[in-house]
Write the structure tokens for this entry.
Amino acid sequence: MTDASINSTSTAHEAQFGDYFALLKPRVMTLVVFTAFVGLLAAPVAVHPFVGFCAILFIAVGGGASGALNMWYDADIDAVMKRTARRPIPAGKIAPQEALAIGVALSGFSVVLLGLATNWVAAGLLAFTIFFYAVVYTMWLKRWTPQNIVIGGAAGAFPPMIGWAAATGGIAVESVLMFCLTFMWTPPHFWALALFMRSDYDKAEVPMLTVTHGRPATRAHILAYTVLLAVLALALAFTDVGGPVYLAVALVLNALFLKGAFAIWRRDETAAEADNYLAERRFFKLSLLYLFAHFGAILVEAGLDRFGLGLSLGGLT
């Protein structure tokens, strides 16, 4: 990230608290916090409320550190994309060097304190997540391969595993499947966004699948990943974190998600242009509900288990 124009305007405006908060990608942090919280509570080990609060706080800080490092390195891309041009660095609110310092400092802070508050397995997973997002995805995959979202999605999928590890000190089938749920959800979610935001990626020369392979291939990939996602989502129902509530939610949402993916796949380019990508926009909005509802159902099952009301469907664990 060496765009001179960013450096020249970075001190044009005095940064406010909101600018520093925006640097941490609060929307992404919301997903990180929620899925980590679910992983923590779904684990079969009771955690003291204060320890649990500290764990979620430090995981959130680690997620924010990743966001700051991503914005530091991607400031040149963000400056030319309509969706990201108003972020703190391209908008001239925060200097790139300041964002880098904040990201590095918060990374070390979050990992060390998570390790001290819970255990070093959870801290190690958090450290790897920050490294994966900031280095493997942001600095390498994003600008190099159209599979950037597929592989890079692992960074956003680790939080439930970190939450689980914070409670148990280890990894289990359930936490891996929660990771897989988020991992497989990421490509169709972001490819749907890329379908109606392709001009941004064209201008930034980011090799998103829509740019390198075109819209028809992207739609086919969305359908394929949605089918695989449905299988993984339903598999979770038959583990110790699943149950009838989760199964009901998964059946309804995956039916809707598959329907939406099929509707996108069967469309031709002319029809998509004519209605301004309404199907893709609907699918993208549904994808936001999809993940939160699945993890919300896991949270409900965890609550039922705490009161002895849970009903196991048997199977995987």
